[in-house]
Design brief:
- There is one protein chain.
- The chain is an alpha+beta fold and 75 residues long.
- It contains 3 helices and 3 strands.
- A 3-stranded mixed beta sheet has the order 1-2-3.
- The protein starts with a helix and ends with a strand.
Length: 75
């Protein structure tokens, strides 16, 4: 899942070196933290959060065992 999210985000931003994706898993949930350069944050979130919601949908479809999946953007 990490590689897919990282690939999508890198395709959206200008500063590809600043992209960091980390995953924290517990028994009940998975949290994906996406960090990008401050100038690129708007590109990842999109108008009205449409791109961010699309990334969240993809992350949920890749989740193991249908556990709750959250994607958080920023630091």
């Amino acid at each position: 899942m990490k590689e897919v999210i990282e690939y999508i985000v890198k395709c959206l931003v200008e500063d590809k070196d600043a992209v960091k994706v980390s995953i924290e898993e517990s028994d009940e949930e998975t949290i994906v933290r996406v960090s990008v350069a401050e100038d690129d944050l708007g590109r990842v979130i999109g108008k009205n959060g449409k791109i961010a919601n699309s990334i969240r949908t993809i992350a949920k479809s890749l989740a193991k065992d249908r556990r709750k999946t959250f994607v958080k953007f920023g630091d």
